[in-house]
Amino acid sequence: MRRRSLLGGALALTLAACSAENDAGLRIMVPNPPGSGYDITARVLAAALDSSGIARGVEVFNLPGSSGVVGLRRLVYERGNERLLMLMGLGLVGAQITADARVTLRETTPVARLVQEPAVLVVRRDSGYGSLEALISGWRADPGGVRIGGGSQPGGPDHLATMLLAEAVGLPPARVAYHRHDGGGDLLAAILGREVDFAMSGISEYADQIESGQLRALAVTSEKPVPTLPAPTVRDAGFDVVFNNWRGMVAPPGLSDAGRARLLGMLGDLAVSPAWAAARERFGWTEAYLDGFAFDQFMAAEDARVTKVLDSLDLAPLRK
């Protein structure tokens, strides 16, 4: 599908100045269950839009299924709907590939990438693994016996981070006992219920549990330590893995130039707002704003990158 080109700067700036009242009725779809990383991001974003006066009363709703593919189908069906956005990210890029979805992100209207977020490796507070080094030692000794949980299906960020760590420590991905759960809420229950030995997830999903001591963070996949997280980076622990998830917004296809410019202006205003800066700091998110055509190109590159990784794991179907 041929993308629309971005509007001229003057028109975009004019439309970006629309009042909050003009954004009444805006809805954000979360294609994953409540408690997931997408869900947390969308609800924090809606609150920041409201408190900043950019858009009042934004509704957030969940439409889970097939790791986001059900929501993606709904979004494409809503062609021309300028009051609907969908929170998405790396997980949906992988899901559409592994599901060989008939509807893909290429059919949506890219609006903006918002943040990046590293993964965190967590264990229960009473786990026998006191450090990443101890966990890796046990994992190497019994690759199939150490159960790993993630909140994404193969191709999603939790799965990719796990497989990259496995390769870095010398374990063939085919021997990794990765157990997929339907979002952060289900994964948390699996960790606490001793169904998995450790979990890989986004920092924001378990920030509260780590702070309260319910979970212990053994390592984070960022390039540098996260100030709010009491854990070393995987690289500082001796394993060459740096990995970041990302999240952004897409809209239905077929938007008018004015409608697309309004959404671009709204998220551009959010990106520089104090409320959104405070949210990023609280959840350990890194500012990664990228909009319009640049975001479109970025998603195309991510599609190719994830497909290559999944091909190496024999998890990507032949693309049409």
Give a brief description.
The chain has 320 residues and is of the alpha/beta class.
How would you sum up this structure, described in words?
- The protein has 320 residues and is an alpha/beta fold.
- Strands 1, 2, 3, 4, 5, 6, 7, 8, 9 and 10 form a 10-stranded mixed beta sheet that branches.
- Helix 2 links the parallel strand 1 and strand 2.
- Helix 1 packs across helix 9 and helix 4 crosses helix 11.
- The protein starts with 8 loop residues before the first helix and ends in an 8-residue tail after the last helix.
Approximate helicity band: 25-40%
Q: Tell me, what's the shape? A: globular
Count of distinct structural domains? 2
Number of helices in the DSSP assignment: 11
Low-confidence stretches: 1-22
In this structure, how is the largest beta sheet organized? 10 strands, mixed
Oligomer: single chain
Strand content: 15-25%
The SS-based structural class is: alpha/beta
Total E-strand runs? 10
- Name the CATH superfamily classification of the largest domain: Bordetella uptake gene, domain 1
Instruction: Using the CA coordinates, give the radius of gyration.
Output: 20 Å
CATH topology of the largest domain: D-Maltodextrin-Binding Protein, domain 2
Mean pLDDT: 88
Provide keyphrases for this structure:
alpha/beta, D-Maltodextrin-Binding Protein, domain 2, ten-stranded mixed beta sheet, 320 residues, 39% helix
Per-chain topology:
Elements: H1 9-16, E1 27-30, H2 37-51, E2 59-62, H3 69-77, E3 84-89, H4 90-98, E4 109-124, H5 132-141, E5 147-150, H6 157-168, E6 177-180, H7 184-192, E7 198-202, H8 207-212, E8 215-220, E9 244-251, H9 257-271, H10 274-283, E10 286-291, H11 292-312
Helix pairs in contact: 1-9, 4-11
